[in-house]
Specification:
- By secondary structure, the chain is mainly alpha-helical.
- Helices cover about 70% and strands about 5% of the residues.
- It has helices at about 15-20, 30-45, 50-70, 80-90, 100-115, 125-135, 150-165, 170-190, 195-200, 205-215, 225-245, 250-280, and strands at about 90-95, 115, 120, 140.
- The strands form two sheets. The protein has a two-stranded antiparallel sheet with strand order 1-4.
- A hairpin with a 2-residue loop joins β2 (about 115) and β3.
- The protein is globular.
Length: about 280
């Protein structure tokens, strides 16, 4: 996410306090996702095991370090890889170790392989999770009800997540997605003749916290304009609703997998067309 340079303090006396308050924005998302992990596991024991999550995190950081060094000749900042790894460690459900390793590896590799005009098209974690659950549905699942929908711990995450995505200028994306999900929950309830509460309940779970605060707001895989970002995330909610009505498991992941890259390609096509007109 975007990084802001903290203002220089006027005096040495207040410098330590100002430096503490002006936390580098790159560390805010890792702080949030670590809070989600600790709150979830210490309260409800959602993880299959700490060692599985550790495998996912280490794999992501090592893969990012090697690929970043070989591709760009620099040592990449580990924050992005940490988020991908810990997300995989939280989301993936499997009695085996290899899905955690494979999800992280696929996630990081997609950033360096699946690129158009210098930008990767898919959110890495969304790509990795979608690929693994699609290819190995018999042995891999995604976190859903393991945390339940208990409000108290979720409220802490909502507040912290809202503050952090606001701090990095992505709150409008999360808010648009949540409002769209709520609106379409009425449609799903009417279409399926099921209680509205049952249709809106999933967004209160931990899987959706990661999806709402991290995946749809990823600055590397979202279009540039604020209006475009809101339109794209609304379309993600539309496609998710269609998939849900057709009983597709993991509908939000597949919806972002489909809509996100298409939006990126359309934006790149429009930018290239605009440059051509200027030259002409």
């Amino acid at each position: 996410m975007a990084v802001e340079s903290p203002a220089l303090p006027r005096t040495n006396a207040v410098a330590p306090r100002k430096r503490f308050l002006a936390i580098d924005n790159r560390f805010l998302p890792p702080l949030l996702i670590t809070s989600i992990l600790l709150t979830a596991h210490l309260s409800f024991g959602i993880l299959e095991g700490w060692e599985r999550t550790a495998i996912a995190i280490v794999t992501a950081i090592v893969a990012e370090t090697i690929m970043g060094r070989l591709t760009y000749g620099v040592w990449p900042h580990p924050a992005s890889a940490y988020i991908s790894g810990i997300s995989a460690g939280i989301l993936v459900r499997s009695p085996f170790y290899w899905p955690y390793f494979l999800t992280s590896l696929i996630s990081i590799t997609s950033k360096y392989v699946l690129r158009v005009r210098g930008r990767h098209l898919w959110n890495p974690t969304n790509f990795g999770v979608s690929a693994v659950v699609f290819l190995a549905p018999a042995t891999v699942a995604v976190l859903s009800v393991q945390w339940g929908n208990v409000v108290a711990p979720m409220a802490i995450i909502w507040v912290l997540g809202t503050v952090i995505v606001w701090r990095v200028g992505r709150l409008h994306i999360s808010v648009t997605y949540v409002l769209s999900f709520l609106a379409f929950s009425f449609v799903r309830a009417w279409w399926t003749a099921t209680p509205w509460v049952a249709n809106v309940a999933p967004i209160t779970g931990p899987m959706y916290q990661l999806f709402t605060f991290f995946m749809v707001t990823d600055p590397k895989t979202t279009v540039k304009s604020v209006k475009g970002q809101c339109v794209v995330v609304f379309l993600v909610a539309v496609v998710e609703t269609v998939l849900r009505l057709n009983e597709v498991v993991y509908a939000p992941f597949y919806a972002l997998f489909i809509v996100g890259p298409i939006a990126m390609l359309i934006e790149q096509w429009r930018d290239a067309r605009g440059r051509t007109r200027v030259i002409a």
